[in-house]
Specification:
Structural class: alpha/beta
CATH superfamily: P-loop containing nucleotide triphosphate hydrolases
Helix content: 40-55%
Number of strands: 8
Strand content: 15-25%
Number of domains: 1
Shape: globular
Length: about 220
């Protein structure tokens, strides 16, 4: 029996999760469903759910798990999610993972969880060395992906590369420690169920992509 997948892609800041999600979306025509995008979209909506979320955000409170789940449920009920889709940013907790189990069952899909695994020391190097072009968004790195002219974009020679304020060494350490603390229970949840697959995120993006594509294609599951 062929079934579609809900692909839960997990990765620390700097692991390359966003890059791989965009590649999968473009090459396999699998929509990438990002909670960040959903929150931005809901700011311009006037549904009952949108009004509830905006009221919570305006109060400065965290959006409860059940409300976030309703956003995911609504978004993934649309036509483009009839087959497989990628979830980026959900679930973040074991409770959200349990909610996703119910959604997968209702949608007739199976859950595939893939961690892009990169050692923290490598992540620190990637993040602190990261520089981006303000014109095109191209990412460089002072350690291993240097521009032709130091400090300037190859495609926009007049554009000085920017260093994000939260990519400093101290802030990167805090971000990675927070990620590990928050994500550890979720990884254990999927490990305990035998559904956590890992790929080595220290390789070239094209090598990582090929392994992800192979994992998605296994177990007689269609994209």
């Amino acid at each position: 029996m062929f079934m579609s997948k809900i692909i839960v892609l997990i990765g620390a800041p700097g692991a390359g999760k966003g890059t791989q999600a965009r590649l999968l979306e473009a090459k396999l025509q699998i929509p990438q469903i990002s909670t960040g995008d959903m929150f931005r979209e809901i700011q311009n909506s006037d549904t009952a759910l949108a009004r509830e979320v905006k009221e919570i955000l305006a109060s400065g409170k965290l959006v409860p798990d059940n409300v976030t789940f309703e956003m995911v449920k609504e978004r993934t009920s649309r036509e483009d999610c009839g087959g497989s889709y990628i979830l980026d940013g959900f679930p973040r907790t074991p409770r959200q993972a349990e909610m996703l189990e119910e959604l997968a069952s209702d949608q007739g899909k199976v859950i595939s969880t893939i961690l892009i695994d990169v050692p923290f020391e490598k992540l620190e190097e990637r993040l602190t060395g990261r520089r981006s072009c303000p014109e095109c968004g191209e990412i460089y790195n002072i350690h291993y992906k240097k521009p032709k002219v130091d400090g300037f974009c190859d495609d926009h020679p007049q554009a000085m590369l920017k260093h994000r304020a939260d990519d400093t060494e101290d802030k990167v350490k805090v971000r990675l420690e927070t990620y590990e603390e928050n994500t550890k229970p979720l990884l254990k949840y999927y490990e305990d169920s035998g559904r956590l697959q890992k790929v080595d995120g220290t390789r070239r993006p094209d090598e990582i992509y090929r392994e992800l594509e192979n994992l998605i294609a296994t177990n007689n599951v269609t994209a």
